[in-house]
Amino acid sequence: MAPTVPQPRTPVEQSDPVRQWYENGLGWATAPEPGPVRLLTGLRFDVLELPAEAGFAALRHLGPKAPVALHGETMRLLVSAGSADELPGLLDWLEWGDIPLGLTAVGAGGRIDAPTPPGWSGSRGAAVWLRPPEPGCEVEPTLPALVSLPAVGGGGTAHHSDPAVGSDLVRLVDTAATQCHRVRLRRRSRQPLAFS
Predict the structure, then answer these.
(1) CA atoms within 13 Å, Cβ hemisphere of 3
(2) What is this structure's pTM?
(3) 59-103: pLDDT as tens digits
(4) 47, 106 contact by CB (below 8 A)
(5) Is the dihedral of CA 179, 185, 186, 187 positive or negative?
(6) Is residue 128 within 8 Å of residue 122, measured between CB atoms?
(7) Who's near 108: CB < 8 A, 6+ residues apart?
(8) Rounded to whole angstroms, how far apart are CA atoms 54 and 180?
(9) What is the C-alpha separation between 85 and 39, in angstroms, rounded?
């Protein structure tokens, strides 16, 4: 008599409805680790992280379908994959490079906590969507990107914002840096003066 082999069990990851929503509904990669679902960055999108107070002012430079999440006091703006690598150079070019702004990027090899899907109840303090992605729709065309087009007269590149391809990363980073700086100055002015 042959031994009976039990049927394989469904892995925990596949039985997680949040993980299924991201992987099957959106086609986004999630980290294979147990625990709360984490999204892998650098594949379909990168993430700009900044203080939420500054982020709300930067939203005007995002297309209406560009996903935006909030995690505590941090806003996460989804941007085109590869943008995290561009951020330090953009900040230098925009003359923000030497100023601590609280504006960072998560790119290739990074992870962020997956926001609770829209309409679902999440745990207190969990990341949430302010502008959720749409299942079945490609996210890439809605994301701010560094778009290079031939400059007038040739021989160079120009940055361009076309609603069909998302908004301009340069304008978004410039606005985000400006707003981060303003938040930093306001917070600093609220601190009591230290006298010796």
Answers:
(1) 3
(2) 0.78
(3) 887 878 889 999 999 999 999 999 999 999 999 999 998 889 999
(4) yes
(5) positive
(6) yes
(7) 41, 42, 43, 46, 81, 82, 84, 85
(8) 5
(9) 18
